[in-house]
Structures are given as C-alpha cells and as structure tokens.
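Hi everyone,

Forwarding the result from last night's run.
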Amino acid sequence: MNTLSLEKKVLVLNSLVEGNSIRSTVRLTGVNKKTVMRLLVEAGEQAKEILDTQMVGIQSRYVQVDEIWTYVGKKQKQLTENDSKELGDQYVFVAMDAETKLVPAFKVGKRTYGVTESFIKDLQYRISTRFQLSTDSFKPYFNVVDSIFGTDIDYGQIHKEYREEGKGEKRYSPAQIIRVIINPLIGQPSIKHISTSFIERQNLTMRMQMRRFTRLTNAFSKKLRNLECAVALHFYHYNFMRIHSSLRVTPAMQANVTSTIWTWENLLLGTQMKKAA
C-alpha cells in the first residue's frame, strides 16, 4: 500500500465511500484486494482520530439518535458456541444534529445496555450546550439518559407501532405504521421536535454508501475492525467532505466545526483545516 500514489489512494477511498464493494473497487482501480483492505483500515483508523479530535464543543439544539443493524462474519442465528463474540449481530448507534445534519457521535457494538451507556456518555462529552434529545423506544435509553444527564437535558421518545404481518408473509421493507406515540420524558422537550425522521434518513444514506450495509446481497464485514473502520471513513466523508443537498455546504461547515471543505489529503497526509471563526 505504501507504494500507491496519493492519487491512487484517493481513487480507492472515493470508490469505497460511494457504495462500491471491495471487489468492485479492485476492478475499478486495478489495486490489489489486500492493498485495498489495508488502506481501508489505515484510513479508517486515521478518520477515527480526526473525528475524535474535531467532534468536541459542538453547539446543538436538537439531536436525534437511532441504531442501524448489520452483522459481522455470519448472522446471529448461525452462530455456534465456539464463535467469537465479535461475530453475529452488530449495531451502529448514531447521533445527528437535526438542524446542521452533523454526526458528532457514533458507536459500533451490540445492542446492549452497556454499549448504549457508552454511546450516550460520548454524546454528552461532545455537545457543550443543553439540547433536546429524541430516540426511539429502545428500553435502555431512558435509564441511561436519566443517569448521565439528569435534568440537564430535554428528552422525548417516539414509539411506533406496526401492523402485524399475515401468516407466511415475508417482507423486505418496514411494516405499515399504524400508530405513533410521542412521550416527553425529561425536562421540557418541544413536542413538534420529538422525531427520528432525520436520523432514519441517515440510515438510508449509510446503507447506500457503505456496501457492507446493503441488504439482500452477499456483502458483509468479515471482521469487527473492518466494520469500525468503514463506518469511521463514512462519517469523515459525510461530515467534512460531502456537500449536503439541502444545506449547500458540508455538515461540519454548517455546525461551525470548520470553515472549508476537507479532502482525502487532509486524512492521508495528517493535515487538518482551520476551524471556523
């Protein structure tokens, strides 16, 4: 990988974040498969460090949180007693600012109380203002938010009830929603802003731009580390490089994290653009 030119590395990374698989990236770029994988991991680790450094002191008013499912190695029902704990179902917890569309925090892990707690603690560390938080009705959220924030947050949940499927019916998309319940839980959240619409749209963006998240294909992560690096690379590109269609700037620019559009060179060469004034 060290023998690749900077231009070739940029070509590979652009291919990966636009939803191409490892093998299709190999065909498009002519770069060896193992080299593509090494570049993904190296760039993903660097992306993690940059995001960890830059996503602090965020000023936000409305934050939406959701989890997106994927798996590593094999699906949960295929696991055996001797399989590693890294295999099977994995979830990506994602927090998004509803106004700037910035993603200040995310975490890959099992859908457990402990992982949820770690994720919410990280979110608290990155946002410096009091904000309104919206989540779905996943049970651990309330206790975790209450124990970490106390009364220093406005928090509400949105609970969606779905139509039961008929016997033998098989679906590949969400079932029909029959009722939505809004639950203000902590502080004084604005009812009209208790929503997960923006973060659910971000789930679609992730499935479209990371091949390993695409449903009904044979694309999946073989190792947890590969998944973590791919997710970090995606959010580096999303926050700092990709012009949001409705904002006309990157989410990081909209949130005053930076004043300029970043490039892959900032990541590969270890340089960082100046902060916004």
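The domain at 6-268 is CATH 3.30.420.10 (Nucleotidyltransferase; domain 5).

Cheers,
N.
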